[in-house]
Amino acid sequence: MYEIQFIREGVTAKAEAGESLLEVMRRAGLTPDAPCGGNGRCGKCAVKLCGGKDTVVKSCVFSVCEDLIVDTMGADASANILTKGVSHDMLFDPALRQIRLEVPPCPAGESTADWKRFADSLRGAVEKGEDGKAAARRLSAAMPASPEIASKLGPILKETKGVVWAVVFEDAEADVRTLTVLDVSAERQPFYMAAFDIGTTTVVGYLLRGEDGSEAAVASRMNPQVQYGADVINRANYSLEHGMEELSGCIRAAVNEMLSEMAESAGAVPEQIYLVSVAGNTCMHHLFLGICVDSLVHAPYNPAVAEPMILRASDYGLRISPRGQILMLPNIAGFVGADTVACLVSSGLADQKEWTLLIDIGTNGEVVLGREHQMIACSTAAGPAFEGSRISRGMRGAPGAVNTVKWENGAWSCTTIGDQKARGICGSGLLDLAAELWRTGQISETGELQNGRQIVLVPASGTEDGKDLALIPQDIGELQLAKAAIAAGVRLLAEKMNVPLDEIRQVWLAGAFGSFLSPESACRIGLIPPELRGRISAIGNAAGEGAKDVLRSRAMWKRSAALAAETEFLELAGLPEFQDRFVDELEFPELEEDRTE
Questions:
Q1: What global pTM score does this model have?
Q2: Nearest Cα to 346, choosing from 557, 582, 595?
Q3: What are the distances in angstroms from CA 403 to CA 140, 389, 425, 554?
Q4: Of 148, 183, 345, 412, which is least packed with CB atoms within 10 Å of its CB?
Q5: What is the C-alpha to C-alpha distance for residues 207 and 420, in angstroms, rounded to an integer?
Q6: What is the mean pLDDT for each group of 10 consecutive residues in the chain (597 residues)?
């Protein structure tokens, strides 16, 4: 056994001879960045071995054979994560409520159980309704007794002379309501709900106050599963080879840490959180629940489960109220998941009178075209280029990332996030750079650089590591693959619905990349068809907003199932014309009115 010191994090770990340094970092809880899944291709997991002559090595292929002092060189833990979305007015009518009850005493000479008297009082209060009128849906007669709740009832009823506050979850199916009692107390207590958008790259959590649905706290972080690969295929393959435990365990641990962080920020404790909603793509959904992802990586690439689910949080390791519940939003298809459904919930796309295009550009791109409950969706293998992976000097949107680029007066003009020295280039900067290269004729329509070698964007004097920040031909190729996948998906959806592009009146960009990219650059290189110029707007973290909406409204939770069911899925890989359309979209579109030398 050898001792490995990670000096930047202040962590020491033991390692066996021959074990890869990446495996040691994972076991030590450092969450290394390994977009290629640890296959030695991308070099993003590089670390510095300190002592004597410092050496930089790829941690995934470096085998431990001695004690080491390691500098992880500050991976992108500080990445800027989008938490805001476009909110909208809605009726606050949650499934989670706190109700004041007056439970009558047991009559002398009788032996009526505390639970029965409590349940009868609760049933009467719910059926009567908040306004004193009879409820529209009848209440299920079944209200199974809970040993945990029953054990607390006696002392509370004695202390308060029959007054008890009950935290209740109401599950409404058709015209029947089922009540689950989650907690009881002698006095009214603060209670909370939490919504999570579990993305492939980032995780965002929101803590909501139970009494009015207002936001009490927000937390975000990188998805710890990035250490097993930047994309869902790498992660799925890892789980099939090594089991589900590592991937499921690390995301659940991250959610628990965020729950504690948000509760502390709000002056609460996690045990006061009673309901959690989760939205994520199909792979993230399955990995969170510990569902085998075999069906996602083999044809016909279908989900193991698509239906919405209400689950007990403790069964999945969430440290909230012991009887707390999870709302898992439904999936649409193998690679169009609950995050897309959440976007549909919050955006109201199904209610639009004009054809509207919703595009969520991330590691996996999802596209929905629809209006008035006519919706069709597809998944595009955009790859992680826009997240900085597979780009030679690519990085996520963190301080030091080049995020805007212009060609001015014969030279490159750039900005970086935080106005720091350049560390690399993120997706929006890469998009701008390609658009400027095309506009100024420095690149051919097929993606060949004019000088054939590289473009020095930021000279060594302006970079953090003292080396030129340059774009190489392979980087252009990765960008072309990503933009062609998105563009081909958009055009094929429109053809499937017999909708000319000029009839699409709105284009909504969801997610972080969509919020920060330049729509002009996106159209100039053909990521978004140029015909859609002037119709593009960003709607922020729409998936996160949808995850909050289903907590605030029983109707929205019910609607999520309807939206998933009525959205048609178009499997692009199964279309004979897809490959030809994809190849066509690899080229940059001719825009003579833009072209300047």
A1: 0.89
A2: 557
A3: 56, 15, 7, 40
A4: 148
A5: 32
A6: 85 90 87 77 80 80 89 64 81 94 90 92 80 53 82 94 95 74 96 96 96 96 88 91 94 97 97 98 97 92 96 97 97 96 97 96 89 94 74 87 94 93 92 94 91 87 91 91 94 97 96 90 95 95 97 96 96 91 93 52
